[in-house]
Amino acid sequence: MALEISGKVHKVLETIGGTSKSGNEWKKGQFVLETGENFPKQVYCTAWGDMIDQVQALQPGDQIKASIDLQSREYNGRWYTDVKVWRLEKVTNEPIDSSDTTGTSKPPPPAPPEDTSSSDDNNSEDDLPF
Fold first, then answer.
1. Three-state SS for 56?
2. pTM for the model
3. Could you tell me the domains of the chain?
4. pLDDT at 90
5. Cα–chain-centroid distance for residue 42?
6. Complete DSSP assignment for 60-126
7. Spatial separation of the C-alpha atoms in residues 47 and 38, rounded to whole Å
8. DSSP per-residue letters across 101-120
């Protein structure tokens, strides 16, 4: 079952990392997503591996859709739930470009120049053919 959550990025948190008991290095990207419902909710999300660059490219206010997995685990008699992101998309359905460090979208291509020449020899302001 695929789960998705949409909203705007409320805050991008620091990437954290460390070394596991087995000696492997790990990193985790984190951000808070605010849903756009009548009663907005803030959801803490995490990302691992190659998703970290995409999380770091997010800016507060970005409208995104996140594909997520929910996972719960027990520790010392208490239960904890993680919201793990495995895909991020901007609302315009463009994948988030991790090479764009400014967090801004690319500007649209420039419009072609207007044709100011007139085929009408009587120099009228009206370009209508009748």
1. helix
2. 0.66
3. 3-90 (2.40.50.140)
4. 86
5. 16
6. TT-EEEEEEEEEEEEETTEEEEEEEEEEEEETTSPBP-TT-TT-PPPPPPPPPPP----S-TT--S-
7. 27
8. TT-PPPPPPPPPPP----S-
In this structure, which amino acid lies at residue 101? T
Question: Of the candidates 122, 54, 57, 63, which has an alpha carbon nearest to the alpha carbon of residue 87?
Answer: 54
Among residues 103, 90, 68, 92, the alpha carbon closest in space to that of 8 is found at 90
- Cα four-point dihedral sign 73, 17, 95, 9: positive
- pLDDT tier, 102 (very low <50, low <70, confident <90, very high otherwise): very low
Residue 40, both tokens: 């907005």
**Over the range 5-16, which residues count as b (16 or more CB within 10 Å of their CB) and which as e?**
bebebbebeeee
Q: What is the pLDDT of residues 74-101, one digit of tens each?
A: 999 999 999 999 999 988 655 565 555 4
**Closest among 43, 29, 47 to 84, alpha carbons compared:** 47
Residue 5 structure tokens: 């959550």
| Main-chain phi, psi angles of 55, to 5 degrees | -65, -40
The two structure tokens encoding residue 65: 């859709």
